[in-house]
């Protein structure tokens, strides 16, 4: 009984660091990139919600081909190139700038606070 429990604990301890890494683009890494979560988080009014739907469609149309390609590459075990990640980052940066532009002053402060706390933690050059 103790051996089984120890094995279970060791398994979870070994897997714990992997949980935060996710499994790449085939997992919805941008889970909060939807109108419902953004409306709830920023208390968007009807006009803002309509504009957000358009911004999300543009973001999805822009990123979908790259995300699909990345998912296919990952399934085959191929190495992903930095250009693909840069495309996603650029589209997300444009979405963030356009989205922030439709927010009022209080909403923009909240947006800035949230995005400051989500600052990238990776090092340039993949180091």
Question: Could you please describe the fold and organization of this structure?
Answer:
There is one protein chain. The chain is mostly helical and 127 residues long. The chain has a domain at 45-120. It is built from five helices and no strands. The radius of gyration is 19 Å and the shape is elongated. The termini are far apart.
Q: Helicity, in percent?
A: over 70%
| Strand composition percent | under 5%
Quick check: average pLDDT?
Answer: 76
Task: Look at the helices and sheets and give the structural class.
Answer: mainly alpha
Please give a handful of descriptors for the protein shown:
5 helices; 127 residues; mainly alpha
Structure summary:
The protein is mainly α and 127 residues long.
Walk me through the topology.
Blueprint: H1 2-19, H2 35-42, H3 46-76, H4 82-101, H5 105-117
Helix pairs in contact: 3-4
